[in-house]
Design goal:
Layout lengths: L4 H4 L2 E6 L2 E4 L5 H20 L18 H25 L2 H5 L2 H10 L1 H7 L1 H4 L24 H10 L1 E2 L11 H14 L6 H9 L3 H4 L25 H10 L13 E2 L8 H14 L6
Antiparallel strand pairs: 1-2, 3-4
Helix pairs in contact: 5-13, 8-13, 9-10, 9-12
């Protein structure tokens, strides 16, 4: 049998399972790429910082570094923002809200501030967390939604309060109150429900019309917006165990820390504008 071309190719002498290791040269394109990789390496070393030394590193002819590029970009960004920031510091919250350009800049500028101080509880867009932290992007305000109200909340914090009615009322009376709360939120409360509401003393905090009281953080019961859940069981729990009642097992928790000593006056002003803008803040 004639010898094949494969058998004519020199080999290394290695063979395994009938497979010979040949000495064919690599393709020309591979050789070119191999050589060019060394050319590229030399060019990179000449142009860019690359080789670590004992106390330093080679700088390259350009002296470029990613860190310096970042610092230059930050400096350029700060230079653009500086006139706006200086202007913000001299404007009141009302003046900023009256200037759409400055309002837009203030809300953009506070992205990081809101993310650091508020988003962990209230969410990145102020959407809140059901039964835990209030929604900020609606127009419902427990402690008022004016600029001053929001500033006071940020500076001093808030501690919710509601008495626990377990032990004060029997199960039937608590159930009647829960039904009233469910019904009044949909506009279908009965006179008997209103009587139970008033007899239990709820109007002292939530008002005779059940529309809440910002001075004590009492919720509006008529708007269908729920702080601690909308089911009847949720309402029963709140009525029975109250809010922030020491020693009462099952009481709801509603506490916000004050930031008055953590933030500058300008940061508080800008956060006030951000929260006011998120939730359709009140003017009076």
């Amino acid at each position: 049998m004639a010898e094949t071309n494969q058998n004519k190719v020199p080999d290394t002498g290695h063979e395994w399972d009938g497979i010979r290791e040949l000495t064919n040269p690599p393709p020309r394109w591979w050789n070119i790429a191999f050589i060019m990789s060394f050319v590229w390496l030399v060019a990179y070393i000449i142009i860019y910082p690359s080789i670590p030394l004992v106390n330093d590193y080679t700088k390259g002819v350009t002296g470029w570094t990613a860190l310096q590029e970042y610092k230059d970009a930050v400096a350029a960004n700060d230079a653009i923002r500086a006139p706006y920031i200086a202007k913000l510091e001299k404007m009141s919250a009302e003046e900023i809200l009256g200037d759409q350009e400055m309002k837009n800049f203030a809300n953009s500028y506070t992205n990081a501030l809101f993310g650091d101080r508020c988003a962990s509880c209230h969410g990145s867009n102020g959407q809140g967390v059901e039964k835990m932290f209030p929604v900020l992007n609606d127009d419902d305000w427990l402690y008022g939604g004016t600029l001053q109200d929001i500033t006071d909340t940020i500076v001093d914090g808030r501690v919710g309060f509601m008495s626990a009615f377990q032990g004060q009322l029997d199960e039937a009376e608590i159930g009647q109150l829960a039904d009233f709360v469910m019904n009044v939120s949909s506009g279908s409360a009965t006179q008997a429900g209103w009587d139970a509401y008033n007899n239990a003393g709820c109007s002292g905090c939530h008002g005779e019309d059940a529309k809440g009281n910002k001075w004590v953080g009492a919720a509006n019961l008529t708007d269908g917006i729920w702080r601690f859940g909308s089911s009847r069981d949720d309402v029963l729990k709140t009525i029975k165990f109250g809010v922030n009642q020491d020693g009462v097992k099952g009481t709801q928790s509603g506490v916000m820390p004050g930031f008055g000593e953590m933030l500058s006056a300008n940061d508080i002003k800008l956060l006030t504008i951000r929260v006011w803008s998120l939730g359709g803040g009140q003017t009076e």
